[in-house]
């Protein structure tokens, strides 16, 4: 049964969208209907303020994103040659030198989101080509720019997911709006959206935004060609800022090809609008279509792959279900859909993408993601977990599950919120990476149940008080530690 005020749009074959994609529909909200205009703005500012004011800064691999954006604004190129000290900064794992020119080693498209900030900085002379990269190298000199910018992206992502949830959830307009708001608060404050994406200008921030935008555009693609173009732009952009999103893009394109065929040309056109200039810049700058970071040779079946697959889920310091067990609601959501015969083609694709993405991460020798908090490399999957959990949200509201399961859900949400709050508020949690020895130099620490990063900050808070837990400064990371142990850089 269609939701009140929602119109299912037929597909190219003339079949109703519901018949083609189960209960995931193309929808058109009546004016002032499903989404109250004030709710998204309130959600946006709550997320922005809380995330932006969180004490922890995770600036590391992202430290040259601002310098790259400034280079684009001031020099019209991606190299960092105008910074005379670039070759002197410590731990140069995030710098690559090609034909005598120095570049940020990570995906340059993610730095483009900082161009407005760089342009303003140049205009008021707070940042220019005289920026001392030796000061930038410690992260403190760019955190005051990176964190607000990343928090804005996370807040916008949360609003996009709010719109998406109001279109997927069932029930009355009031019920959908309320449940969408609750689901978005869990996303914003009980996952890596808070403890990772908004604490530095990782590529995770742009990735979350683009993946969420792609999902919303795909949902609305039957309404107009414009949404198909937006879906293509978002999907191609998601790959450009984070190549591991190729798994996501491939899965979503396959779904569109099967169930939204008449919109695929417009989707492809939007994607080409991003990929053509992306490849052109790469050819002009690096003399090849893709920089080294996009090399799929980084994924290999290794003897440590089983450990990596297990660690990504249950490592005491990197496991998804240790830091964000609320993700289990997604598993229940898929099971609930199958049991009630509400499993849609899109849900099946999304669940498959998550499994394939987990498998791809298991092929990566640096699966723990270096200095980070919890399962950072799973951050890009959060929008998919969000959508997959929505059937659970419906079930919780209509009381079709037992009281014990509702209580378990509350425990999972609260636990996830506490753990991720620790990652965002307690600096001692971040210091786990290099205390007592850097995790890259001693990966066995990832399995130390007696010193889990998930609770390190809270332990310090209880034992030593808030001054130590919140205000602690981390020990210096050994220079080039990743080079010393033979690990390639990752972001």
Major pleated sheet: 2 strands, antiparallel
Q: List the helices and strands in order.
A: HHHEEHHHHHHHHHHHHHHHHHHH
Shape: globular
- Spans of at least 5 consecutive residues with low confidence: 1-33, 478-491
- Would you tell me the structural class of the helices and strands? mainly alpha
Overall number of structural domains: 3
Round the Cα radius of gyration to an integer and report it. Answer: 22 Å
Number of helices: 22
Please count the beta strands (DSSP E, at least 2 residues each).
2
The pLDDT mean sits at 85
What is the straight-line distance between the termini? Answer: 44 Å
The amount of beta strand, in percent, is under 5%
Strand order of the largest sheet: 1-2
Please give the share of residues in helix. 55-70%
Core attributes:
two-stranded antiparallel ribbon, mainly alpha, 2 strands, disordered C terminus, disordered N terminus, 491 residues, 3 domains, 22 helices
